[in-house]
Amino acid sequence: MLVEFSQGKLIATEFEVQIRLNMANVVLQAAAEDISLRQEPPMIIANGGGVRWSIKLDNTNQLDALQALLGIDYL
């Protein structure tokens, strides 16, 4: 799955999530099992092992697409 948003691109599979930010070619990566989703505001939160980051998406439609792919509930 590929979703473009204002800060870059969200690339996801059932196993992994990558955020490719437009600025400075930064890539955030996490295993799907380390991902949590927050509906308000629409955020992806990665927390597990050595990974800890979060990013706000533009709208809930982008978050809903990721939620459907990963099959996880919102916080």
Describe the protein's architecture and organization.
The chain is mainly beta. The protein has one domain. Helix content is 15%, strand content 48%. It is built from one helix and seven strands. The strands form two sheets. A four-stranded antiparallel β-sheet has the order 1-2-3-4, covered by helices on one side. A hairpin with a 5-residue loop joins strand 3 and strand 4 (27-31). It is globular. The chain starts with a strand and ends in a 5-residue tail after the last helix. The mean pLDDT is 95. InterPro entries: DUF3389. This is PTS sugar transporter subunit IIA. It comes from Shewanella sp. (strain MR-7).
Strand order of the largest sheet: 1-2-3-4
What count of structural domains? 1
Major sheet characteristics: 4 strands, antiparallel
- Helix share bin: 10-25%
Low-confidence stretches: none
The number of helical elements comes to 1
Share of residues in strands: over 45%
Q: Averaged pLDDT, please?
A: 95
Query: What is the SS-derived class?
Result: mainly beta
What descriptive keywords fit this protein?
75 residues, single chain, four-stranded antiparallel β-sheet, mainly beta, 15% helix, 48% strand, three-stranded antiparallel β-sheet
Give me a quick take on this structure.
By secondary structure, the protein is mainly β. The protein is 15% helix and 48% strand.
Question: Can you lay out the helices and strands and say which pair or pack?
Answer:
Elements: E1 2-5, E2 8-12, E3 16-21, E4 27-31, E5 35-38, E6 43-48, E7 51-56, H1 60-70
Antiparallel strand pairs: 1-2, 2-3, 3-4, 5-6, 6-7
